Structure formats: structure tokens, C-alpha cells
Queue: 2 jobs
Job 1
Amino acid sequence: MITVPVEIQILFAGLLFLMGLIGLLVRRNVIFMLMSIEVMFNSAGMVFVIAGAHWAQAEGQVMFIFMLAVTATEVSVALAIILQMFHHFKTLDVDELNKLKETD
Amino acid sequence: MNTIFYIAAAVALVSTGLAISGRNAIHSLLYLIVSLLAVSVVFYILGAPFIAALEIIIYAGAVMVLFIFVIMMLNVGMERESESNWLKPRMWIVPSVLTVILLIDFLYVLKTMAHEEISGQVISPKQVGLSLFSTYVLGVEIAGMLLLAGIVGAYHIGRQKKKVIHRFMKKEEIIKESDAEK
């Protein structure tokens, strides 16, 4: 059905992961960091699907479904944390949160 | 088929790059959704139609809506632009072009697949479901518990405690409450 070499497919997933990693390291806005984490999750799941397609096994897709559940949980908790962060500090910049002291 | 894979991969890489380098959060989300659609096309070509559908329904549907809710609630990222400013062509033209490329991809696949026999490489949803609910049924239950913990955790963390603005008002409230108890 598709004759793209599996190395190219893995390379594509790797590039996507790299983009997510760069975004996570470069951006300081916490929403953008969360979006980069999503990209990284997605590319990691893609490697599962590529491997499953390569060996014609259903396990790769099963693992992707589990990753979907983990991602959904992670996103909901992280967004709740972001809401609290904005409520307390009135900013989305993570560099503003480096002081371990009480604010009043 | 190979050309379609390369086109979808290119669209995914370009839109992801634009998503992580954007300034406005909503625009970046738009690019991220295009990226997810492109990745879904890649999954479809790889012979995983079920995962392609899940990718759109859960990632591009549910998770991105959560993001949009939070960005709208926080009211950041707009930086006081007027609504006419949002509707300028340069805001939506690039995501639209990328999505149209994907649409052409999709139509081409539909047209060629109608004449072509699907090879045995495609892993059907039935196989995935059988594997999921027989071999990995323990994992399904653990995922259920994880989601429950996620719901409770998100509710607990996201709850905003009632703030008393002034200490005298606080005192009054306590007195009122004790009066009410009596």
C-alpha cells in the first residue's frame, strides 16, 4: 500500500518530536510549552503506529490508544494548573515563578 | 501513495513549525489542529484508519477545545485586537491553504482507493478492538482509573476558593453564619 522506507517514516516522527522539544525549550509561555508537549506525545505515538504497520501487528495502535488516555489526563490536569497559576500570579510566563516564597 | 505521504508529512512539519513559533495562542492552536489533521492523513496512509479517526476526534476535537476554553477564559493572546482585525486574510489564509492541500490529498486517496484493492496491510478496527479487549484488558481498566484520577485531580486543582475581600466583611460573614446556626 505504501512503499516509503520505514526509516523515512521514523525520521518524520523524529523531526516532529524535535520540533516539540525545541518549542518546549525555547518558549516561556506555559500554554505554548504544553502545546509542544502535545506535539511530542503525538510523534511518540506515531512511532508506535509506524512500527505496528511495519510488522502488521495491532499492538502499535493499542499502545496509541493508551497514550491517548494518558495525554487527555495530562492535558486536563495541566490546564487546571495553568488556570491556578494565572489566578495567583496574573502571568503565563514560567520564568516569573522561580521565586520560592510566599506572595501576598 | 508515496507522494501523498510526503505531502502530508511536509504539511505537518510546516504547520508544527508555525505553531511553536507563533505569537498569538489562538493562531498557534489553528496551526496545531492543521498539523494533527496532516498526521491523521499519515496514519490513514500507513494502514491505521481507526487511529486516524481517533486522532481527529480526540486530539483535534476534545483536547484542542480544552486549550481554546482555557485561552478564552484567561483572555490572553489577543492583546486587545478588535474583531475586524482577527478576520483579516493574513490570519486565516495560511491554515486554509494547508488544509486545502490536505483536502486534495484526501480526495485523491478516495478516488484511487475506489478502484484499488486494499492490501492486507491495513489493520482494521476489529483487530485493534480484539487485541485491546483480550490481551490488554488490564491496561484498559488501568486507563479508566487514570482518567478517573485525572477528572478528580483537575476538578480539585481547578477549583477556585472563595476570596474574602476585607477582614471586616469576613467577620460579618462569620457572625451571620453563627446567627444562622442559632
Job 2
Amino acid sequence: MPVAKEQKTNPLALDFCGLSLDSPIVLLSGCVGFGEEYTRVEGFSNRDAGAIVLKGTTREPRLGNPPHRVSETPMGMLNAIGLQNPGVDRVVDEILPTLDFAETRFIANVCGSRIEDYAAVTRRFDNSAIDAIEINISCPNIKEGGVSFGNYPDMSAKVVAACRAETTKPIIAKLSPNQTDIRENARRCIEAGADALAVINTITGMAIDVERRRPVIGNIQGGLSGPAIKPIALLKVRQVYEVAGPLGIPIIGQGGIATARDALEFLIAGASTVGVGTALFYDPLVCRTINEGIGSYLVRHGFGSVAELTGTLVTGTAPATPRPGPANESCA
Amino acid sequence: MSDPARPHRGTIFVEDAEVLSIDRHPGGQFILRLRSPKCATRATAGSFVHVQCDHTIPMRRPLSIMRANADEGWIEVLFKVVGEGLFSLGHKEPGDRVSSLGPIGKGFRPDAKRPRTLLIGGGVGIPPMIFLAETLLNDAGNWQPLAIMGSELPFPFELRRSAIAAGWIDADVDRNLGLLEDWGVAGRLASLTGFPGTYRGYVTGLAERYLASLDDSALAEVEVFSCGPTPMLKAVAALAARFGLPCQVSLEEYMACAVGGCAGCAVLVQTDEGPAMKRVCVDGPVFDAARVFAAA
């Protein structure tokens, strides 16, 4: 008779709107190309991320913005890539077949200039191997669409509803921080059918070359990312969690996460998963460090799984609830 | 563990690289030797390394690899301070460590049917030309490289009166980099500043003197390789086009990830399918000059 092996559970694994993720780390759209780019780096594995969000994809191919497209800022960077992509047909027909879906979950990132473009791209991805679809209503770097949808709750809701009608795959609405009240936008996106929310996209900004008195970025303005925006992103996650948490809508918390401690802050604030982007540019192997750091924190604080940590922020004068963990089991 | 279906995997290495030496030169120029054995093994002329200069400035800086010694496990880069990051890198001492990511990029691809390789380097564009010269030196082919280097700062190398004759240029233009001289690689220098023994003018002026001295059969054996400031590269591309010569240029652009993930370094390139934005990091940094400087 075969001996039953003890099933070792992975405390970092979680269910994210029906997708089984092996880690709460989500690699963010625009930072990791179409899913294979970082595997060039020895020691990097797509398996270290729970999910990878592919580069923003539009109905037709886009060349994107002229150089310079990136510029370093104190503890951050500006980018204005302008959604360079080969168009959804080539992504679905030529790129998705090259990805190893056994390694991680792959999420599409859908963008457009008109609502019908978002719907068309979502429809194309619905009939593909992609695991989920992120609706990019917050790209700050294109002239039409993108953030012009994301800054207005009515428009955000219309885009999400149009995409919802085209797919049964999980839909994630990527919210813009460049708006008055992100809570209202979150609520409207949930009502329109979003299964999850990504909080936040980059914050618009610019840099000037004073010697030439010209903008550094070819597009004049860009999106600010990196550790510089972390406190802003963290508050936005907390605010969105107030709306999304009670409805059971999970959040990808993102914006400046570079360490396990950063990731833990977002989880405690209410995120179910944590997005990593710019930090890869600092350390391409950062996922392993973050996974290890979260894992050891869970043990140290007696959490059985990462999902238990979401939204456990303690406010007011109440003490943090003691957890039944290795440190206090003997007291039970 | 290699994956035959995905040969790109695991070809770029993160290394905690020890500073083996740092040579300081006038004008804020530095030659840095790093222990980076994996990078050294795979580096090719034209490839670069993405270096984190300091923990407080976490974005990396792309630096062309000038020399790589796989047996001894080191790489060498040359840089000029242009901002805080490289300022910080310039203050490293032997024994310090920096994170290196490399080698990255598609390098120069010299055509054996054109053994008269003309290497034109300007300023911090000199390093890949030195790498290419050393590569050709160690190759079995019948290469006859000529290096033309320009700088407006004092050359960060020992200069020497060349023992290799160059009948195509005035006798008083006689200096070569000592390194190239040791290797037996012909070379002459250009500078508007008028350093002794250099051609007073642009590298393209000096290169034009050489090309004009060749007959048609010799010209048919010439291929041009270049790295330097963009205006110089455009002039080199125009010169090559005027003489009907193939020309490969190594480009520079602001860069974030350097592994193809962010498309931050993309430049406009004419392809057979029309205009496309190509990433300098992994699609380049070396491109066919005629395809990036269409007006040339």
C-alpha cells in the first residue's frame, strides 16, 4: 500500500479571482515585455511570479512614442513608451503560443482610444489561452483613451462594462491615481463587472533638461514609478480596499514595491497580490527576495497563508489581534 | 539549464562584481576593471553591461564593454562622468563591489569578405572599437583593421608614435593608442583640440582621407564600424554611404531594464516591413547605419 505523502502547502499560494497563483507577486505590464524578456537573466524564473501582465495591447499595431522614453528621477523614473505593441492579432497568434503557461499565469493588458477598441481587443483575448484580462483605463502616455477614460468614473465604468460583455475571463480594472476620489472610480468599475482592481498606475509627471530648456521625455510628460510613489500608492490601495474589501473584490497593490517590507505594507493595507515593476530594473532577481521575505514574515507572525494577511491593518488604539502561530502555540 | 526552444534564457548574468582596478584620467574619465567571470565568458564586441553605480541610485547605467578576459574572469569599461550615478561609480576603489548585469545586446558582425575593417570611435564610443580590434586580432581571419579614434578630452590611454606606416595621411599625424600599437593594429587619432600628433579635425575627416586613398578593389574590402555621439554616427553613416560601404553603428539611448522588457530604449529603425521601433538593448545596440540614419 502506498504511503500517503504529507501534502506540503505553499503559504504564498492564493486564489485570485479564480486563478491559482503560486506567489502574490504580479509582474506589471510594461516592465516585462510579452512575458519572456526577463528569462534572459540567469536565475530569473517566471515561476517566481504568481502572474505576469503582458505589455499593453491595442487593436492595431502601435510604434509608440519617440525617444527619450525613460528618465531617472530621485528614487524613481518617468516613462512614456506610448503603448508600443504589435497589435492584438500578432500577440494572440504569434506570442501567446510561445509562452509556457505551466510556469505562471499570463494576464493581457488591454488598451485603446475608443470604447469599441477595448471591446474588440478583449474579444480577441477571450478566444485565447490568456488567463485574465487587465483593462488599462489609466495609461498616461497616449493622446486619446488611456487615462482620459480612467480619470472619469462614468467613462471607466463604460469601458469595463463593454469589456465585461465580451469575456468570461477574469477582468482587472487598472485604476489611475490621477483623479480626485479613487474610491468612486473603484466602486463604479466593480458595478460594471470588474473582478479585481489594480491600484495604481503611474502618476503623471515631467522632467526638464535645463541646459537645453527642453523636456527630457520625448512625449513631454510621462508616468512616474518607483519607490518615490510608494506612499501615494499605499494610501490609494487602502482607500480602494474600503470599497472593494467588503465586496470580496481583490486588489493588486502596486506602486514602488522594491522589497518584501514594501510588499507586506500593501498586503496589510488591503491588497491580495503585489505588483512589481520598476524594482526589476534595479534587481532582476528581486522576486525571490520578496517571496522569501513574505514567507518568513508569515511564519514569524503566525499566518498560515498570505491571504490571511490582506487588510489586517490595525488602526486606532486596539492592539493587533494575536495570531495562533509557532511563537504562541504552546500557550493554547 | 538550457531550453532548446528558448535559447535566449539564462544568457545575461547578475554578478556581484568586485572592482579590480580603477584608472582615473583627465576630464572625469575612468577605466574600470570588474571581476565578472560569467559576463566575461559571453561578452562580444558591441555588447554592454548594465551597472548599478550605488545603492542610493538604484537605476543601472549601460556601459560598453571595452575588453573581456574569460580566462581571468574580468571585463573592462570606460566611462566619463555625466551625472550622479557615474560620479559615484568613479569613486569606487579596488575591493568595492557593484552589481553588474551582462553581457547584453547583439554586437558587431564583421563580414569576412571585407577584411579592411575601419573602426571609428569617438569619446566614450572608443571602447567597443577596442573590443572589436582585439576580437579581430584573435580571429583566424585575414583581418586588416584600421582604428580611427577621436576625442576632445585627453585620450584616456597611453599614446605612442605609431610604428605602423600610414602613407595615406601626413607624416606628422603619427599617434596611435599604445594598446592598439602593442597588438599591431594600425590606428590614427583625431581631435579638434589639436593634441600633438593627432589629425586636427573630425574623425570623419581623417577617415575620408583614408578611404580616398584606396582604389576600387580595396574599397570593396572595406566595412565601417562605429560608436560615438549621435552627430558623429550620422556623419560616419553619411561618409560610408558616399563611398558605398556597409556600416554598422552602436547606438546609445536612455535605458531602464536593458533586457527587452520595458521598450524604454527603442529607436526608429527602417525594416523590410517598414518603420519599426527597435530596442537598443536587445535588438541592438549595433544596427545597420543605413537603417537608423535613413537620410544618410
